[in-house]
Specification:
Order of helices and strands of chain B: EEHHHHHHHHHHHHHHHHHHH
Number of helices of chain A: 27
Number of helices of chain B: 19
Helix content of chain A: 55-70%
Strand content of chain B: under 5%
Number of strands of chain A: 5
Radius of gyration of chain A: 34 Å
Oligomer: heterodimer
Radius of gyration of chain B: 41 Å
Distance between the termini of chain A: 49 Å
Strand order of the largest sheet of chain B: 1-2
Chain lengths: 633, 405
Amino acid sequence: MSGSQDHPAVAQTSGSQEVCGSTGDAGNGRRVSGIRNSALHRLAELRSVLQRAFRLLTLRENTLFLLLAVIIGLFSGLAVVCFRISMEWIRLWFLGPTLYPSLPRVVWVPALGGLVVALLVMLFFPRARGSGVNQTKEAVYISDGYIPFSTVIGKFLTCSLAIGSGHSLGPEDPALQIGAGLASSLGRRMQLSRRKVRLIAPVGAAAGLAAAFNSPITAVLFVIEEVIGNWSAGVLGAIVLAAVSSVVIMRWFLGSEPLFRIPAYRLVHPTELLAYAVLGVVGGISSLVFVKIVSYLRPKLKALPRKTQYLQPAAAGLIIGVIGIWLPQVMGAGYGVIDRAMHDRFTWQVLALLGAFKILATSVSFVSGTPGGMFAPTLFIGAMVGGAVGGVERHLFPGLTASVGAYALVGMGTLFAGFLRVPMTSVFMVLEVSGNYAIILPVMISNTVAYLISRKYQRTAIFDLLARQDGVDLPSMEEEREEPGLRVEDAMRPVVSPVLRSEESFADALRRSEASTEQHFLVNQGVRGWSLVMLEQLRWQVSDGKGDMRLESLPQNTRLPWLHPDQHLDDALRRVGDWPVLPVVSRADFQKLQGIVSLSDILDAFGVTSRKTGSSAAHTQDMPKDKRNVATG
Amino acid sequence: MLLERQCEECGRPILGGETKCSECAARDRKPGLSPESVLVLCFPALLLFLAITGFVVRQYDDRQKILGEEWSARGQAALREHRPAEAIEDFRTALAYARDNPDYQLRLSLALVAGNRPDEARSYLLSLWASEPESGPINLELGRLSGARNDVLGAVRYYHSAIYGRWDDDPATQRRNARLELYQFLQSHGAKAESQAELMAFAADLPADPSLHIEAGNLFLSANDYDRALNEFQQALRLGGNQAALAGAGKAAFLRADYVEAQRYLERAARTAPRSAEAIHLLETTNLLLEINPFDPRLTAEQRNQRVVRAFEQARTRLESCAQERHEVLDAEEPQTALQALYVRTRKLQPQARERTLRRDPDAVAAILNLALEIEQITARSCGPPSGLDRALLLIAEKHGGTQS
């Protein structure tokens, strides 16, 4: 709006003046001009106010990220609710409403389901293959968090069909990928930066997993432990928000009952912990067997001609159907069976059989390329193995007070730790699912034993193994956790050159410095910290006749960043920048110098010897001009 | 997932099925809505998704409910037709659709009990009990299972919880039945005092229903608590009780040796139901007893002596017939059996067992009467329970303690 013609107030004023006709043309012109200016001024003010208001409404990316996390949680929760219901509907339609389906259905439905799933995967949704965990990691680490929305659709359809038709797979990992896919799509639509899009996929993954598991803590921990591998505060908040929102939605629609009804548990005598250690051993061995079968069969089947991939899920379905003739409990995710195992509904012999055949059925389903998750089968196998071990132990030692259900519960966590190799998540998963803190000691003992056995005899964790079989080198969170990180103390060297004081004169400082072979000298500025001065600078100052002046009188005498010995060397690398050396000081007293570190020292510590220049002087030449003059921060 | 190709534009590795990497694809894409617009659009999209999910969930829940009810009905039918194995599977299937439905769980546990799988039933019931410790039916079933395991203390605890627990249908009757079951359980385990206490509690809580009071009276009779039994039958009569109450009252009075009262009730009972064999038989015995009872305080000395003499004669005849039945010779020189010893004493007192003698020697009355009652007791043990007048005399002997140890 620029001219007065556009402004009704101005137009109205002009009209009234014409009616009155009491002033001359010049006067009228001045008055009109004044009114117009005043109106324009008001308009400009209004515009400014509106712009400020709009700026307030425009969210900063960090705030937007958190809001988006909640929205992703809600969408993921809804998607997972629909996913679970679609699986149930498919099971009802194809396998019938009976607990144990009729023989023809048991044999043929998984096979036919596998055939349809294979067609969908091969022809329409190639990215829907696999469990979903590695695919999400691939998206994060390779594709900048990019997961096409078609993958969400594909995962939803193929996994519903596979699990609903009786394949021995679980819905959790697919839910994780569905959540990640939704998050990725939404993040891209929101035009988030590449870094944020890469972070938003794990946020969605946590939301999907939390809804599928009805356990927000487990989901958050799993995503941190297995997908992103760190506890960055920014992403942690978003992950927690997303997980909580999705669980709220899930509980709203499907009720707040946990996946399994947990039997009461109380540790009566500490010696009973030995029984759980035995469970840890058996669980560890079972995990190993499971991993070995999967890792052996998967590349073999993948190596077969591509056209066989159309039939592999059907063949797997047929095998599961044959197992299902005698043990229909192994079909599908098996939550109901886990629930029954936890309430002493099976003898230990049946539990052992179910555990063994579930390993077989799940391995066959998974290696055939049928989309579906490993979480639920792992819990199933763990519960059965735990229950069987508990049954045998109770038979041999009737004095044991814990129920078979308690062993089944601990067994779930044990397999989780041994097979998926997520020790923290496995402990918290059992705690969260049971809501009983008393179970923590048995869980910790059993899980640790199983984890150690699994690690001893299977160096690579299952998800890393699967990724490497696929030719993808995803970061191994387990290996990263165990890699000893280099610290500043590994690179720092003792201070041999004199440490100058800011109150010293240039002449004194030069005298002391010239005795040293170093070119750079740290200046202790007392409470103001540390700065750096070059020998050449001292010489200039003295030759300019400023020998009596103090070091603190140097222009642009800014502080030098310092390091502590326990800091990661990565931090040192980031901070060293163009500085020739940095002081390493005590955390208790930053004036207490413990050593110095230079870029070459850091590179030496990292083992990058080829770039070693041997002296900081070379860096000095590369220093920007302003930094060459003085030590600046 | 294998890395199969590279981005056409930037050469970065990409996954199969794609031609460009995500970044290049995003760059090529036409500029879409602003983030604010997408954010605003998220809310109607969420509402729509919520509505769709709500609809789907409702459909699913309805279907689950219907399936649960169908399978439960099938299970109940199978249970009624004594096919517990089928019933168990049906209820399990019902529970697959309504995992926490306590009715289905209770029915499943009943089916498991019927299928002789008490341990599984107990396990289910204990799970149920953990969530509903106040439930009457669950406690009752647990009481029964504990009883079957001979866990008396556990059974009593669960029965009591059932009695004081929550019942949805007709709680008073259910509680009464539970207490009655507890009483019977305690009786069968020989816990007489405890069972008596339960029976008294049962009787104390009865509504104004004559049939219930008759039932309580009969239970008191079986527990040998004749006073309370008579009280219950009288209560039943006051409430309009019929022949059963009269017969019960007569029997209770008879057993507490109140023969006059017994005769009164039994006569009415016999009149009301002339074909009631038990009442008529009891009435006959009562009549005989009242006819021969020498302890009746209303008798004169002469009448009493007559009855004593008659009792003596009757006992002697009984002794002889019993000895004959056992092929014993009573007239042995050296008495070796109890019957022979009694016979010796009978012969010794025989001369005094005359009305005239007794009138002169009142001290002999007791000796003769005691011997007669002793004969009835010993012959009852040797030759079985007597009938008619002998039974009347035996009852008199039992009531008055007799002389024979």
